[in-house]
């Protein structure tokens, strides 16, 4: 029996999230203040976080690491560790040696290799709404390649081909759709299960009609976001999506789950999707730069949902229970401060350094806390298995 147990442990494949989640959190914690420092200090270091660089690292570095950790599951060491090594090399190369040709190639190489391992996992889905996850992840990975090409070719802003910033904006819209879909598939059954224990039936669960409409509306927005000529159409689509996301969130009746702080914070993150989509749509409608509004998606929504999902999964695996209120509420509050202060700082954030540093500091504190907690929970899980 002892021999059998030790043999099963040796054959156990490592979980991707224990590797990618802490690394992604640490990258998020360091990249934002370093990007502000690179400009504010006048040193221009690290060069890879100047201009579009910090957005590239948070979308194609941080967010793709989250995708890897959440979707890969258990993998053979021969697959997982080289993939993680490529991700790490791409981050170091992109931040420290952004003009090196080999370093520039590492990021797209990781994105394509990740797509190779992740996308086939969703091919068995039968409903068209479920089948879109694989192609969407593939599209976001391909946008990493497009960003690299747009940067390498130095495509001018008024060219008919999208430059680095429009490609990045399309990628953010892709993440908006991915978070809308996967967040809904995470929240709906958890809320339904919690309410059923109280004898309260939840009729509005996945809400397939709303979900299907969101897929179409936001799917079109991903393409149109790359072309400023279509801003009015994109604005209408994003404002429509904001209303649908808000309606879907309200129909889950999360106020009936006060004993589940993890679900309440997930709902806050989901509502940030609606706020970010609405603000971005209004900015495009009024011919204003979309960057401040897009930060409501990347900081408010992505920040809140990513920290919630990482902690929730880690707590379930290590303690078989959701994270406590004292852990998730302060993180959600810090990320709300970060999102709002960055939005108020506007399109020229270095003209409001106090707001910019407040945003960067709040974001960093949240992710440093998450990094530390993930490492401690991983150690607890490892000790329990011995």
Quick recap:
This protein is mainly alpha-helical. It is 77% helix and 0% strand. It has a single domain (16-378), classed as Cytochrome C Oxidase, Chain A (Up-down Bundle), CATH 1.20.210.10.
SSE string, helix = H, strand = E?
Answer: HHHHHHHHHHHHHH
Please indicate the percent range of residues in DSSP E strands (runs of 2 or more): under 5%
Bulk shape: globular
Radius of gyration: 20 Å
Could you describe the 3D structure shown?
The chain crosses the membrane at residues 55-72, 79-96, 102-120, 132-155, 167-188, 209-227, 233-251, 263-285, 291-315, 327-348, 354-376. This is NnrS family protein. Keywords: Membrane, Transmembrane, Transmembrane helix. The chain has 386 residues and is mostly helical. It has a single domain, classed as Cytochrome c oxidase-like, subunit I domain (Cytochrome C Oxidase, Chain A). It contains 14 helices and no strands. The radius of gyration is 20 Å and the shape is globular. The two termini are 15 Å apart.
């Amino acid at each position: 029996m002892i021999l059998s147990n030790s043999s099963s442990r040796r054959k156990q494949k490592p979980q991707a999230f224990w590797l990618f989640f802490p690394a992604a959190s640490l990258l998020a914690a360091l990249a934002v203040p370093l990007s502000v420092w690179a400009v504010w200090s006048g040193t221009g270091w690290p060069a890879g976080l100047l201009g579009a660089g910090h957005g590239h690292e948070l979308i194609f570095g941080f967010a793709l690491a989250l995708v890897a950790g959440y979707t890969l599951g258990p993998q053979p060491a021969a697959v997982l560790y080289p993939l993680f090594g490529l991700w790490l090399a791409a981050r170091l190369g992109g931040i420290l040696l952004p003009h090196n040709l080999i370093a520039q190639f590492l990021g797209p190489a990781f994105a394509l290799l990740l797509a190779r391992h992740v996308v086939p996992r969703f091919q068995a889905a039968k409903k068209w709404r479920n089948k879109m996850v694989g192609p969407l992840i593939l599209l976001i990975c391909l946008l990493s390649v497009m960003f690299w090409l747009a940067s390498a070719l130095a495509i001018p802003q008024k060219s008919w081909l999208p430059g680095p910033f429009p490609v990045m904006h399309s990628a953010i819209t892709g993440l908006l759709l991915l978070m809308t879909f996967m967040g809904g598939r995470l929240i709906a059954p958890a809320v339904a299960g919690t309410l059923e224990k109280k004898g309260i039936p939840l009729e509005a669960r996945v809400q397939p009609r709303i979900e299907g409409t969101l897929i179409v509306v936001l799917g079109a927005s991903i393409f149109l976001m790359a072309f400023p000529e279509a801003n009015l159409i994109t604005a209408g689509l994003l404002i429509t999506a904001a209303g649908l996301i808000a309606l879907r969130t309200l129909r889950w009746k999360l106020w009936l789950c006060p004993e589940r702080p993890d679900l309440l914070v997930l709902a806050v993150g989901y509502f940030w999707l609606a706020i970010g989509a609405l603000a971005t749509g209004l900015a495009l409608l009024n011919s204003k730069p979309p960057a401040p509004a897009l930060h409501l998606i990347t900081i408010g929504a992505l920040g809140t949902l990513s920290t919630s999902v990482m902690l929730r999964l880690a707590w379930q695996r290590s303690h078989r229970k959701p994270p406590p209120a004292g852990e998730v509420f302060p993180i959600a509050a810090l990320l709300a401060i970060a999102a709002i202060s960055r939005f108020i700082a506007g399109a020229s954030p270095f003209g409001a350094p106090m707001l910019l540093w407040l945003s960067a500091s709040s974001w960093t504190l949240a992710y440093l806390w998450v990094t530390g907690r993930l490492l401690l929970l991983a150690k607890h899980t490892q000790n329990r298995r011995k």
